[in-house]
Amino acid sequence: MGLTYETVLEELGDCGRFQNRRVLHLQLVAVVVAITGLSSIFSLYTVQHSCDIPARHREPYASLPPTQWSALAYPDDTGCSMYDPSHYDSNATSFDFARGKVQCEDFVIQHTDVKTTATADFLLICDRESLKNTANSIFFVGVAVGLVVCGQLGDAIGRKPVMIVQLVLLIIVTALTAFTWDYPSFLFARFCSGFCYVGGYLMAFTIICEMYTTRKLAALGLAYEASFGTGLGILAGIAYFVRDWRTLQLVAAACAIPSLLLTIWAPESLRWLLSTGRYNRAFELSRKIAKINKNPFSLSVQERIFTLSKGSREDVSERESQWLTIIRVFKTPGLRSRVCILSLCWFVVSCVYYGLSLGGDLLPGSIYVNTAIGGLVEVPAMLIAYPIAKKVGRKPLLVGSFILGGISCSLLAATFSVSDLATQSLAQFGKFCITMSFGILYVFTFELLPTRARTTAMAFCSVWARIGSVGTPYIMLLSSRVWPPLGFVCYGVLALSAGLVALSLPETLNMPLQDSYEDAELFGTAKYLSIKTDGNERLAQITLDIPDAASYETAM
Questions:
Q1: b/e sequence 381-415, b meaning 16+ C-beta within 10 Å
Q2: Rounded mean pLDDT of 362-368?
Q3: Which of residues 432 and 528 earns the better pLDDT score?
């Protein structure tokens, strides 16, 4: 058997008390990221509004019956225009509606579902409605910038410090958003929130996956994604009782504090410590893992840790000279093609996922119920995705969920004006499928990339996801201004396209993680199992025995 990180981790205990206790702490990161990051679903909720009669015209209409007042102030369902009140003759028995309409000078906000929103406070309605979409887009621009920075720092200085700093900043920015005083300050706060949003989420996910052997990755990744959906459902419950958007920001920030305190005790990634040649820290962490898991910390394990760390130190100068690791990825044709396809999948899955998550007010029914169902449906989606990913494979799950989700979203065009129940069902089934795509895409991407560039390359793919997210609010704008189902049809077409393109990716089921660029480049090719170096199997790790289903379920 070849000397690999996997063999060392199996001797230390790859599914013991050490890993299981800390993975529960790190799962909370996904929950609080959903609560803080997606609070804009309610703070930017589209409120019902109508024209307010200007003060200079109000007195002549004081004696008007309600039906005539309504006819004057609400000539259509946009709430953005009214009949010109200066053309009303108080001695006449009816309005001269032929005189045309004028734009509202002021508005009456109807607080039915919410008490206050940023949409109402900053008047992001009517001809300013696109500014609401811009606020959502700028959030995802911040996410893209944050991921570039966090990806580089995660590979350079470690996963844990980046995760903690991002959580601290996320709490501060989320709380300060409650005190924004105008649209520009709110927009700046949205950018900063996006910058802090996914960095901690990505680092926590990476630490979780690198604590276990590859046999556990599918279950871990899908469970982590289910935690995000649980956070979205919790957010809907909090927002139902806290209907002031500024107070909601403060409550969301407070919810993240326990997660921050727990992550302080989270370990650094042992795989990262070994791959970057940090022997002393790797040695101490390995001894701690063995002790908590009640496994012997034998001399042979110590020697293997030293050998792996020494091999990494010999190559550390080369890695440090390549700060922009993604450039190295694009120098190799196989990895370049793989990263491009993954980037397209990330672009689509993020665009569709956030479109369905943020578009609850475009569907019939209560925004709170729509959001809660849309979040909680992610839990069964992950429970169903796990056995599929384990038995059938990552690739069939990704392709199938993309295609089924695309069909579901496209069918909304036929049901939108016919049946509210059918529309709701199709939208939630589309969210169900896209959630499976999102969950397995994290795992699939993680398994297809080498350790030395994993967080940087994942961050690169995630940047494309944020580019897709940036466009999501404007696709939603098509639904509100052009045709209600149009945005959902666009999501359907995108999902179908991504499913077809993903057919060219290699399967990773029961395959080990690759640490070097060379091994990752050959992964999925005919030469992968036959290459030998110095008479030894370079990739002998592939011959590891895979436990049967019963023992696998017991281990989990």
A1: bbeebbebbbeebbbbbbbbbbbbbbbbbbbbbeb
A2: 84
A3: 432
Residue 237 CA to residue 218 CA, distance in Å, equals 29
Integer Cα distance of 402 and 269 in angstroms: 32
Buried b (16+ CB within 10 A) or exposed e, 342-353: bbbbbbbbbbbb
Q: Which residues contact 9 (CB under 8 A, 6 or more apart)?
A: 212, 213, 270
413 with 303: CB under 8 angstroms?
Answer: no
Q: Which residue has the tokens 């791959």?
A: 275
Q: What is the pLDDT of residues 235-269, one digit of tens each?
A: 999 999 999 999 999 999 999 999 998 888 888 88
* Token reading at 428: 């939630």
Q: For residues 166 and 164, what is the distance between their CA atoms, to the nearest angstrom? A: 5
* Closest C-alpha among 379, 87, 369 to residue 230: 379
Nearest C-alpha neighbor of 109 from the set 95, 88, 124: 124
Tally of CA atoms within 13 A in the half-sphere of 499 that contains its CB = 23
DSSP category for residue 101: E
The residue whose two tokens read 């206050």 is 116
Q: What is the 3-class SS of 8-31, one letter each residue? A: HHHHHCCCCHHHHHHHHHHHHHHH
Listed residue (382, 461, 398) closest to 27, CA to CA: 382
Residue 335: φ, ψ to 5°:
-65, -35
- Gap between the Cα atoms of 443 and 456, Å rounded: 15
Length, in residues, of the chain: 556
Tokens standing for 304?
Answer: 């293997």
Least confident residue range of 31-35, 61-65, 325-329, 397-401: 61-65
**Do residues 182 and 174 make contact, with C-beta atoms less than 8 angstroms apart?**
no
Cβ atoms within 10 Å of 152's Cβ, excluding its own: 18
**Which H/E stretch holds residue 224?**
helix 217-241
Q: Convert the pLDDT of each residue in 84-106 to its tens digit.
A: 666 655 554 455 554 567 777 77
